[in-house]
Amino acid sequence: MKPKFLIAAGLAIAALAAFPLASGNPYYIHLVETIMIYAIVLFGLDIVVGYTGQVSLGHAGLFGIGAYTAGVLVLKLGASIWLTLPAAIALTAAFGALLALPALRVTGPYLAMVTLAFGTIIQILINEMSFLTEGPMGITLTKPSLFGHQLDETEFYWVVAAMLLASLVFVHRVLRSHLGRAFEALRGSPVASDCMGVSVYRYKVYAFVISAGLAGLAGALYAYSEQYISPNTYNFEQTVLFLLAIIMGGRKTRTGALLGAAIIVMLPKLLDDLEMFRIVSVLLALIVAVASAVALKRGKSSLQAALIPVVGSVALAGLSFKLQTMTDWRLSVFGLITLFVVYYLQDGIVGFVRNALNLRGHAASDADSAAQLPAGADALSKAGGATSQGATLLEASKVLMQFGGLKALNEVDLSIKRGSIHGLIGPNGSGKSTMMNVLTGIYVPTAGAVSFAGAALAGRTSSDIALSGIARTFQNVQLFGEMTALQNVLVGLHHSFRSNLLDVALHLPRYLRENHQASARAFGLLRFVGLEQLAGEEARNLPYGKQRLLEIARALALDPQLLLLDEPAAGLTAPDIKELLAIIQKIREHGVTVILIEHHMDVVMSLCDTVSVLDFGQKIAEGLPAAVQADEKVIEAYLGGQAA
Amino acid sequence: MQILTQLVFSGIALGMIYAVIAFGYQLTFATSDTLNFGQGEALMLGALVGLSAVGFGINYWLMIPLVCLFGAIQGAVVERIGVRPAIKMKSEFGWIMSTIALGIIFKNVAENVWGRDDLKFPSPLPEAPMHFLGANILPMEVLVVVGALLMMLSVEFFNRRSIYGKAVVATFNDRDAAKLMGINTGLVITFSYALSSLTAAFAGVLIAPLTLTGATMGSVLGLKAFAVAIIGGLTSGMGIVVGGVILGVAETTTGFYISTGYKDVPGLVLLLIVLALKPAGLFGKTAIKKV
């Protein structure tokens, strides 16, 4: 695979480089150049949209900032390309950080509107700040010179191609590293990310900054490529076009970004050529009709559902013969394509082909290669720190958690001994999970104090608390669904990486070593919970019981001193529960303290050293399992009071 | 001082328009947690259809119900094509992109039907300003304020008093439970979109005589109305009126004292700041996240 891949890549690069010489037509050279520039923007946009799952409508604005940074520097200072490109990247990245600030607080439609507002403001500022940007007049500039030599169209094409390759390698490496996994984890489950020590705040900002930097680079190249920039290029339609390119090409793939860029650059040209458009639209209608017929025949689709795209595409084809000029209807066609892609091509063209051919992504092959790594002595060995058994590890005193008038926890005290398994039981709604959320910093208690290993938890973020040694699983499983089992565990191992962006981008030895160690350890942890066969499987495809085990493996990757298990046996079959018991025992033997919330009394009674019972937010009993089991208050809480 | 009063009055009129559009956002958000990103385009279409109707010789006041009907149909279409499939797929990205796409299509169609130039909408009321507190007020501005308030009050009244309104409120509170109680929640959502576009179209014909009418009039209005919806909170009726007035006045004063080119900036900056500091809005309640 590897040498084959290298040969293919070499051929592609050679073809790209030879294109201007072979074609010789400046129009086509410029066209391909534009595609490459858009592809750089899309690599960046994909980080935000595809990986972190945020909708950004501000990327045209960022693209514009890059273009105008280059334009203004050339206009006012006559700066060289050595200055303009880094300046464009740095300034746009700074704006990306600014854009990320509201993104920290909001998601989804709110974020879409915020980024839209941001893009609009940028366009207004470019228009109005005439003293800097020449306003609506725009800026005219020439192709840059390199080493005292004025570049011509072909030579600049090579500069763009080199930049494209550099961006491609950079983005690809970043996204396959722990940074990329952190981005993807944000999308899968922000809460779980925080509880794995991956700060949602920090990595959202990173994602926006990297994404913006690429948009800035592309913008600067675009300014040189067009040799003229004006505010109206960087408008709302441009942003939507970028988004369309990402979803149409395919999220989370570099091929998809390249393909998407090619489509959005070629499509307007196609619409200008009416004959061509008619042919293409008829072909499209045919393909859609055949595809729908096949889907219908295989019973994958209902008549009504299958009819909509067919009618739509036939209408489009009919329209193309009716209209005399398509140029005016360009945006409507883009709109229709967007609708089509959103509903019928969600994984994009690349995803569609991949599904159809059953190709496996990088993630799955990564899992295969991790399996080849030599197994470490014991994946759990780092955990624990078996010092001073029996000392108090966690102390919660008078914790009060109030939601409106409801006291979910009412002055609860909890003291956990190091090295013990502490059961937390109680009827539904008694405040057990609320306690977990308080201990992991997801809820800030209304009153009371919690201290862990001698340090107070008050005022610390979830990710900080996680890094200090508290790991957890969730009652309703919070895995990173689109990531493989191995990747899920690797997110838990995020804390073991010290590599920075430079290490990752250049594959410096530090990153390679850390990545190697982490992969081996992650696979070891999967083996520990018995999931090694499923390492390359996406988490959302695992059966429920396996998902619970995967959560435990992921939590163990944090090297916790304290592990909170929230109903680990829920939904497990009897043999699975037996396995779980063995796993929890082994975890304890490695010196990890465990708090166990569970409804299966046999599990609680056979494992726990101490049991606390909550009812209506109050602790009603605590002690040895047998004693608690016999406690009258406990029996009353579970079975209801005796008639007096 | 006189100028300032004048600016405040125009600001209030403008703010009421924002409030009406923001009200439309609230309606759909209430039933389905979704928004029409093409809300500004619904307003634009309303204004242009109204203009054509007036052009055919229909009286301004008679034209209003026609435009409202058109708005309702347009809203229902948006819901059926853009929102319903996305809700079914539970895809947030889906409805955001498809309402944006529909907005772009509407705008493009309007450009091709009514042309790219801004048109003058004949004013149904005398254009001579009235004098109040030393400032000049256009009768049309008074109509805008009164009309906008009436519109919002009547919808609120409908929601609170009629059994159909109760269905809307029930759907807002818990979509699944409402469904189990025999409420056709799909229909309620369609209805809320129809109502939402209806208010936007109504706002369009109200504002059109004060500004120029054209295919591009909607986009920025829609965005700024979203700012109002956010400032006021997506669940607070009082909030959007206050938010609308704040934004309207901020805008007219910026336009006068700084530059008309910058008049859209305060609203957008306000939007960014409110979302960065208090995402639930100044009047909204913060929801507790469940884990």
UniProtKB/TrEMBL annotation, chain B:
<feature type="transmembrane region" description="Helical">
    <location>
        <begin position="176"/>
        <end position="195"/>
    </location>
</feature>
<dbReference type="GO" id="GO:0006865">
    <property type="term" value="P:amino acid transport"/>
</dbReference>
<feature type="transmembrane region" description="Helical">
    <location>
        <begin position="7"/>
        <end position="27"/>
    </location>
</feature>
<keyword id="KW-1133">Transmembrane helix</keyword>
<keyword id="KW-0813">Transport</keyword>
<keyword id="KW-0029">Amino-acid transport</keyword>
<keyword id="KW-0472">Membrane</keyword>
<dbReference type="GO" id="GO:0022857">
    <property type="term" value="F:transmembrane transporter activity"/>
</dbReference>
<feature type="transmembrane region" description="Helical">
    <location>
        <begin position="201"/>
        <end position="221"/>
    </location>
</feature>
<feature type="transmembrane region" description="Helical">
    <location>
        <begin position="130"/>
        <end position="155"/>
    </location>
</feature>
<comment type="similarity">
    <text>Belongs to the binding-protein-dependent transport system permease family. LivHM subfamily.</text>
</comment>
<dbReference type="GO" id="GO:0005886">
    <property type="term" value="C:plasma membrane"/>
</dbReference>
<feature type="transmembrane region" description="Helical">
    <location>
        <begin position="265"/>
        <end position="284"/>
    </location>
</feature>
<protein>
    <submittedName>
        <fullName>Branched-chain amino acid ABC transporter permease</fullName>
    </submittedName>
</protein>
<keyword id="KW-1003">Cell membrane</keyword>
<feature type="transmembrane region" description="Helical">
    <location>
        <begin position="93"/>
        <end position="110"/>
    </location>
</feature>
<keyword id="KW-0812">Transmembrane</keyword>
<dbReference type="InterPro" id="IPR001851">
    <property type="entry name" value="ABC_transp_permease"/>
</dbReference>
<dbReference type="Pfam" id="PF02653">
    <property type="entry name" value="BPD_transp_2"/>
</dbReference>
<feature type="transmembrane region" description="Helical">
    <location>
        <begin position="228"/>
        <end position="250"/>
    </location>
</feature>
<feature type="transmembrane region" description="Helical">
    <location>
        <begin position="47"/>
        <end position="72"/>
    </location>
</feature>
<dbReference type="InterPro" id="IPR052157">
    <property type="entry name" value="BCAA_transport_permease"/>
</dbReference>
